[in-house]
Design a protein that fits this description.
By secondary structure, the chain is of the alpha+beta class. It has helices at 10-38, 43-51, 110-119; strands at residues 59-63, 70-73, 97-100, 107-109, 141-145. It folds into 2 domains: 10-56; 67-130, Herpes Virus-1 (2-Layer Sandwich), CATH 3.30.40.10. The chain is built from 3 helices and 5 strands. The protein is rod-shaped.
């Protein structure tokens, strides 16, 4: 067989390279489609991949938190004891949004106490913790099996 004949060896080499490139493109498309369809990884999957376990936890504990601060509008004469916000020391105006902490019933301008509540669950005045959840019908922790 003469190696100088056109198409004898060169054509099969190009066919092989084109086949490999097309196969790689198909694999990449399949992987991208799979990731798109499945969406981002779940927290349990991320935790197991970081820990190296590979096995998801058998039980996941969900903490039920007490109700947070209540937002309402201040109205002078509606029975509010203090007309002044203890954080900024300015008087409440009619219709202003205030936050009432359910543990101690202290109230503040919503903006004044908002930053505090981002990092703390207690009242900035008396440090009262939120009340525990009521035992009737709402357990402190609920568990679900994964």
């Amino acid at each position: 067989m003469n190696t100088n004949e056109p198409g004898s060896d060169g054509g099969s080499r190009y066919t092989y390279v084109i086949s490999v490139v097309i196969s790689l493109l198909i694999v990449i498309v399949i992987v991208k489609l799979t990731r798109y369809i499945l969406g981002p990884p779940k927290e349990e999957e991320l935790a197991s991949s970081v820990n190296g376990d590979g096995d998801p936890p058998a039980e996941v504990a969900l903490e039920v938190r007490a109700p947070g601060p209540v937002l309402c509008a201040y109205r002078r004469g509606d029975g509010w004891r203090e007309p002044t916000c203890p954080v900024c020391l300015s008087d409440f105006a009619d219709g202003e949004t205030i936050r009432v902490l359910p543990a101690c019933m202290h109230y503040f301008h919503a903006a004044c106490v908002g930053e505090w509540l981002c990092g703390n669950d207690t009242c900035p005045l008396c440090r009262a913790a939120p009340p525990p959840p009521s035992p009737a019908g709402s357990p402190a922790k609920a568990t679900s099996t994964a």
